[in-house]
Amino acid sequence: MLSPRGEVHITHRDCGPYKKWNIQDLATSSKLELLDKVRFYRNDYSGYYIRRGAGGKSHKPFTIKNSFTFKFNAQ
């Protein structure tokens, strides 16, 4: 469902166990190409509130140190 010039932006931590998710490899296997990887600064997004994706602790905040936004487009 990605338009020919569309992009996918994923913000993710890039340290410790999170690195094991291999975001770049997952994207490549889905025919996406890395365009850029930039450090994520929460203050750049007015009203941004950190949330976990799911589970019993989804309402609790967590640290976003070593977070980056990976920018991909279709190959």
Summarize the structure.
With 75 residues, the chain is mainly β. It has one helix at residues 23-29, and strands at residues 7-13, 32-39, 67-74. The chain is globular.
Could you please describe the fold and organization of this structure?
- The chain is mainly β and 75 residues long.
- Helices cover 9% and strands 31% of the residues.
- It contains one helix and three strands.
- It is globular.
- The model has no long low-confidence stretch (mean pLDDT 86).
- Residues 1-52 form the 25S rRNA (uridine-N(3))-methyltransferase BMT5-like domain.
- InterPro entries: BMT5-like.
- It comes from Platanthera guangdongensis.
- This is 25S rRNA (uridine-N(3))-methyltransferase BMT5-like domain-containing protein.
What's the N-to-C terminus distance? 14 Å
Radius of gyration, taken over Cα atoms and rounded to an integer in Å? 14 Å
Number of strands: 3
Shape assignment: globular
Helix/strand/pairing category: mainly beta
Whole-number mean pLDDT: 86
- Series of secondary-structure elements, N-terminal to C-terminal: EHEE
Largest sheet: 3 strands, antiparallel
| Widest sheet, order of strands | 1-3-2
The number of helical runs is: 1
